[in-house]
Every structure is written in structure tokens, then in C-alpha cells.
Design goal:
about 90 residues; globular; about 80% helix; mainly alpha
């Protein structure tokens, strides 16, 4: 939840608007990096925005956008899809 709040703060809008911006092609490269930064840091990595920018540049913008889309869809879906299925079966 903290990661979502940080993404919203960095982008200046709610998570649904961030997803809409991504699907409309209106998400800036700065916003893409600001979305990736707290997610990477949540894994215990000591990384700065310049490091994220370098990785995005080296990996390519299309891959970075795909990663952001995956992150946002998991955030909206509540995380692990398999866990949700298992809970529903119990």
C-alpha cells in the first residue's frame, strides 16, 4: 500500500488516473521512473532516481512501460492472482 501511495504522490494523481495515462500514452518518462523507484526500493535496494533512469534508458522505454503496466495491474488486482484463486476455493 505504501508503494501505491508513493506512486500517486510522485505522479500527482490517483492510481487509476496513472493507469489511464499509461494506456493513453500520456505517461511521461519522468513518471515512469518515479513509479519504478519506490517499487525497486521496496525490495530493499538502495537505488536513486538517476539509477532508475539509466536502467530505463538501457532497457528501452517499451520494456519500462510494460513493467509499469504489470506493476499497476498487480496493484489494482490486489497482488498475486493465484493467491486470490486459492482463497476463493477455500
Amino acid at each position: 500500500m505504501d508503494g501505491i501511495a508513493r506512486i500517486e504522490s510522485a505522479c500527482g494523481c490517483g492510481i487509476l488516473k496513472v493507469l489511464n495515462k499509461l494506456s493513453d500514452g500520456d505517461l511521461t518518462t519522468t513518471e515512469i521512473c518515479n513509479i519504478l523507484l519506490p517499487i525497486i526500493r521496496s525490495g530493499g535496494n538502495d537505488i536513486q532516481i538517476k539509477d532508475v533512469q539509466k536502467v530505463v534508458w538501457e532497457a528501452g522505454l517499451a520494456d519500462a512501460m510494460k513493467s509499469v503496466a504489470d506493476i499497476l495491474s498487480k496493484a489494482l488486482g490486489g497482488g498475486d492472482d493465484e493467491g486470490n484463486v486459492k482463497e476463493a476455493e477455500v
